[in-house]
What does this fold into?
Amino acid sequence: MAALQLLMLSIVLYAVGAVLSLTWSKARPLGSYVAAASTLMAALAGLGAAATVLAGGQAVAGEFPSVVPFARFSVELDALSALVLAVLSLLAAATAIYSLAFDRQFAGAGAGVLGFLNNVFILSLVLVVASANAFYFLVFWEIMTLASFFLVAYRQDREAIHAGILYFAVGHVAAAALIVSFVILFLHAGSFDFAAIRDAQLPPAVRHVVFALTLLGFGVKAGVVPFHFWLPPAYAAAPATMSALMSSKVAVYAFVRVGLDVLRVHDDRWGLFVLALGGLSALLGALYAVNENNLNRLLAYSSTENVGIMLMGIGAGMIGAATGNGVLAGLGILAGVFHLVNHAVFKGLLFLGTGAVTCRLGTASMQAMGGLIKRMPWTAAAFLTGAMAISAIPPLNGFVSEWFVYQSLFAAGASDSPLVKGVAPLAAAILALAGALAAMAFVKAFGITFTGPARGERARQASEVPGAMVAGMVVLAAGCAVLGLGAPAVGPYLARAASTVVEAAPITIRAGLAVVPGAAAGPVISTPLVALLLGVLAALAVLVAVLPGGSRSGRRVDESPWACGYAYSHRMAYTSAAFAQPLRVLFRSPYSFQVAARSLLARLEVLGTGTMRFLQRVEPVWERWLYRPVASGTLWLGRRVQSLQMGNVRVYGLYLIVALIVLLLSAAR
Amino acid sequence: MNGGSGIWLGLLQALFILLVAPLFTGLARILRARMHSRRGPGILQDYRDIWKLMRRQEVVPSEASWVFRVAPYVILGTTLLIAMIVPVLTVRSPLAMVGDLILVVYLFTIVRFVLAAAGLDSGSGFAGVGASREMALGVLVEPVIILVLFIVALLSGSTELGTITAKVVNGDLAYHSPSFWLAALAFAIATFIEMGKLPFDLPEAEQEIQEGPLTEYSGPSLALLKWGLGVKQLVVVALFLAVFFPFGTAVTPAPGPVVLAMVAWLAKVTAIYLIVAVLENSMARFHLYRVPIVTGLVFGLSLLSLVYYALNS
It folds into this structure.
């Protein structure tokens, strides 16, 4: 079947799944199974469509009947959108399987609505990815925002509603920026079609303004610093399946599509800006992630970090496109897009794993977890895979895309401009710093949640989640392994996707069992060989340990760890807050701490009770120094403007006359 | 270097480093003892320690899971893989077809990740402190290592280790270039930190940064871990030597030059251990929160090197 038919089939099936879960939710469990099966089939059809396009190497375009006269409902699947469609479909399939068991906890509390919203959300994402017309792009973008707003606010408690409203407001700041930029483009190109805009002769100033607006719009939606503040509350409130789907970071794809492919801004200053923005997001996102004690919020901050890494690659690619360096352009975009794909897979996996833990423990706070590896072995193994992938542990997928980011920075560092030569290695150092911080955050996330002693009663009594949820996680864990070990096989498709944006021939990515950065003679990494050698050498280590015969005397399981001769208590084990303590001291300024126990009152209390209550919280720096002034400034401005409106008819008449005079004067000139 | 002989040479390198690692940790112990005016153990003491531990029964805390049990094997396996990739005996990297210096840096991350995860898994408070400090130290050191290696790679035109080594041996990259010697200086200090020596780590106090996660280990697992960390020390030194002081390595992988290269490498490593011993024993331990003073200095050095690179060549 041709790609377009498959895409249509997939869209229809998502719609069917949405309607079915809404109408049949009473007839549980059969209704929910049919709805999930429909979603799963839709996802498979989407995968089929993407695979057809990727294997065929040809973009396919089509047109659906439009409902408005001024815009054509055109869709296009080229290598880039097919790739994003593929990863979206994979996430949809994994969450559909997962939700079979996961949604049971919402039985009687609107599980049908959840299924409906999830399907609408995926459907709108698919159409955003496939749209080749700015108007319809915006329509689906808006549907996506609405669906995700209801999903964020789904729990309907105070926290969720607050997060939902924040998300709604932020989504509309983004939408406003996009609407303005698309209207400007329409005025100049005379059409909403991406193809027409691409061919239009835009004045440079317009190009820059529109690019800035799209960067703002998509950046807000992707959660780059300083717009990262909405992610933690939204992810903490949303159901796990929704958080997993939101990890697809379609906003970054949309930025590449509109900002780079449609607008064709070839300016190395913008490239440097995007690179710097990416570096800042990567660094601060990782820094905030390390310090979180709530799993969902930790993952949210890490999303900011990973979007930063994607932007670093894309920024390097933009520098390459601007300076006519085809290899750099291809490498950078490839690195960014590859990281987008990988992030969707491992972050989706981590959110599903967190969802599994929270549905057993009733909380996402790591302070109440511990020891789950023995009670939830499958969830633990899947989460560990995701944690290692996101920490860029070779040979998993996160490492491969970060390697490509490094290689694109290397290529940028070898360019002629002294500025770029100086900035690129610095960006590499920032990436290394962010990577080390992310590794620390995820050692902590895995270690505190799944290993060590149980820190709470519910953690002690937890049991493994049902098979369907495990299966959903295993699908994505396998995705991490396949994208990592199979990098030489996947790489050429990514190179083709990158080449659609930079209008150059795809760069060389594969050399036998290894991937190369654009040229066959040069540095390589071969993830299959790394995996093989690590396996062989670890086996050698086992052999070394077994040969002298120590293992024959067996293994004695001691009752408890050593505690200086005192009786061991699980409260002696390291906590998540303690684990990150060195960083809170080392990076004091970005956190900006307040130790509440320093107040006089607290000291008096210590004297009275003999116990010291110690409270430390991370002060939201951005909120205090950026958003609060902006908000209060807006209110102040509002009040000033309000004084114009004094309720006196004669004054209003004066306003009219003044306005008339001004208009007449300006017309007379 | 074609694949087949590369693998064998790599295995030879790994085996060589594996076998001499306890020798050098023993040497460090003797040197420290002599500087403290003690006699110290024999130079072969670490071999005896490992052998003895290997034959002992293992005691595992009840909280620990399989993460705790597989960690020693993964750590030793990973450090051996690094030993196979870094050019030690020949100018070319034996496993150039497997990975470049970025892979090597991220292989060190595996060691760190697994060690910290195992420390948390044991449930011991001391292991937790060690795990946290190990990761924090990584945060301070890794950016410097990547920055320095990146600059040297840019100077030599490739991130492939063998290419860099060959350029330095040929004299295409030399110490009269300010960005090269500044990078060398910065990397030398970073190497020193990564070796886990005073003033950053106190090898005699078992609850310190590196030994912390080892608190609950015993028997063969402890032996493997001690050995693995010894190998790690040596490969950190090997990486420094390969990038900044590869003189004496064999140009062709023939038996004669390779044996000579082994001798030369042992001499260089002994010299480094002597210098390290002097530095280590003339300093008191740093508070962990003082480490940024040093890493900040190192980062400054590497920034200087970067400035020279960006403006000069």
Q: What stands out?
A: The two ends of chain B are 29 Å apart (CA to CA). The longest strand of chain B covers residues 58-61. DSSP finds ten helices and one strand in chain B.
